[in-house]
């Protein structure tokens, strides 16, 4: 048996059981990691350093998220990592003891110990060989836990700083394992009459019971480090966005099919119920929800299934969050600062049922497993965030009662001298029996 398959078998069975578990974890997490049972105690916010604000460094900020705590809604810890690295995404190892966080500009990966004292993460390792070991991959973006390993998506390369990139594997100890370049083979295209095998990357998610891994696509360093207004006015730059989702064999990490998904498909979110063989993504430039699904013949397909807001106005969909019962999908749009809720009980015909403006700009959304708590952050990229008064930087927590969002607390990250709030991850003291509380 392939040695990579052995650790997957019991975890695949375990992952399928999670869909029925009454737990409170984020719904975008890898099924290979333990879930939080009950109320999350803290929210970790990977935060971009901001010139003239506090120490100006990227940092992991810990916020008390337990309503029963005396510090509820307050910052209880902050760990700076040195300099500004374009802090972006972060995620846990499969044992959930360590939180890996990446910098899109410097290509550094920062590893935090979150199990010794979950309230006070400690920086224990800085990985600096990502570009060298991978043969030129730039921009560590998504971190996705596999058994004993971390699958990392790149956004770019050091040859031309374009969108051509790869998946890179490290083990949990921080050692490089393997690289898997995004495919450009036209034979893998779902529609061979088109030329869209771009080799771009962005997010990664998996359905282990279907031996499925998916990746989406965005843009390269030359675009994501450019001023947003300047990029929008650069016709050549606007051509340099991805238009593909790739189907991979999860066990072998080999690409199987390339789907044409125009308009920069970003976050991928897969259904949790074992009878639901599909995942969703949203396209930033064309403002659509796409469904990646297995048809009756067992073949995976891609289809646009709904518009987000008014596509002609380019609201710029960014993050999405699927509910644990696969009935709802939260969709954030950066330009108008709104979150929209879609009923996806019919996955092929999503219907918007709610919307609310959260701020002048809006990026990430994290939902608790029971769907009652929704968290939002504001920053997209340092050079893409809005200017002046519209450059709001926050973490906001809401309660969803089934009809509307009710704000519970808000933290102004500029006022607190922290910087630009980007991605959130939940933590719980109960996961670690020896942890300080």
Structural write-up:
It is a single chain. By secondary structure, the protein is mainly β. The chain has a single domain (8-431), classed as YVTN repeat-like/Quinoprotein amine dehydrogenase (Methylamine Dehydrogenase, Chain H). It is built from five helices and 30 strands. The chain has helices spanning 8-18, 130-134, 221-224, 228-232, 235-238; strands spanning 42-48, 59-64, 75-80, 87-92, 98-103, 109-113, 122-127, 137-138, 143-146, 149-153, 156-157, 166-171, 176-181, 204-207, 212-215, 244-249, 254-260, 265-270, 278-283, 288-294, 300-307, 317-322, 328-333, 338-343, 351-357, 365-367, 373-377, 394-400, 405-412, 420-427. Strand 4 and strand 5 (98-103) form a beta hairpin. The N and C termini lie far apart (43 Å). The model is unreliable at 1-23 (pLDDT under 50).
Structure described in brief:
The protein has 437 residues and is mainly beta. Helices cover 7% and strands 39% of the residues.
Number of domains: 1
Distance between the ends: 43 Å
Helix content: under 10%
> For the largest beta sheet, what order do the strands appear in spatially?
3-2-1-30
Tell me the number of strands. 30
Using the coordinates shown, work out and report the CATH topology.
Methylamine Dehydrogenase, Chain H
Beta-strand share of residues: 35-45%
Question: What is the second-level CATH architecture?
Answer: 7 Propeller
Largest sheet: 4 strands, antiparallel
Based on CA atoms alone, the radius of gyration comes out at 20 Å
CATH superfamily: YVTN repeat-like/Quinoprotein amine dehydrogenase
Q: Please report the number of helical segments.
A: 5
Oligomeric composition of the shown chains: single chain
**Would you identify the regions where 5 or more consecutive residues have pLDDT less than 50?**
1-23
Query: CATH class, please?
Result: Mainly Beta
Quote the average pLDDT. 92
SSE class: mainly beta
Note the overall shape.
globular
